[in-house]
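Late entry, evening session. Most of the bench is empty. Finally got around to the prediction I had been postponing all week. Sequence below, unchanged from the version circulated by S.P.
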Amino acid sequence: MIFFDIDGTLLDHHKRLPGSAKAAIQTLQRLGHEVALATGRSPFMLQQVADELGIDSYVGFNGQYVVMKGKLIYAKPFQDEELDELSRFAADRGHPLVHLNEESMRSSMIHHPYVEQCISSLEYPPPECDPDYFRGRSIYQTMLFCEEVEEQPYRDQFAGLRFVRWHPYSLDVLPGGGSKANGIAQLIRSMGFEPEEVYAFGDNLNDLEMLQYVGHGVAMGNAPDSVKEIARHVTTDVDQHGIVHGLRMVGLLP
């Protein structure tokens, strides 16, 4: 079974799916391999890529939401009180939050340049404002918008949550214990695979646990050194046919 991250792995630096990557995945599927996505994106943000590639199994929200063959098999949302405390803490510091569920996302502030820059980098319009969006809903991931020098108080205050930086101006906030590795473990257990039979491709800090957990972790050439160092294999940059090169390197493509 092969898992692919989306941004910076399947999608290139311009958020396009290279033709070579699409053809490679179609070949894997014809050969009888199981192919899935493992991403920080919400289901509504990954569906276009999944549909284009004919993929119906995925790990979303960095492991908090797992779908097998189109059916939800695992979900781990925040507790309401966790987000209530986080919201007050961030508001006191003037830092916006964006709360996400499987259908949509909402911002705690009407306008903020960090939110607009980060969300537009995913090729989505800025979310509408609803500071109380998390109340009474299952929220699987929250984005915190602040610079790196401002993040340590959050880590100190919320030791039970997980913070993973994905942009100079933003971190993903996950329920405690959340990771792509945990989501993959849920999915492969249901599908009858052992970790040693699993491959994964990733390019960023939220891929660290995933690349360590599977039997064959492949870091993209555009990944930070900390990601490359823990991966079993390192392929070329996403813009240099990194998917095809990596699949050939590990023997999954001729």
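Two things to note before I forget:
The longest strand covers residues 162-167.
The chain has nine helices and 14 strands.
Will write this up properly tomorrow.
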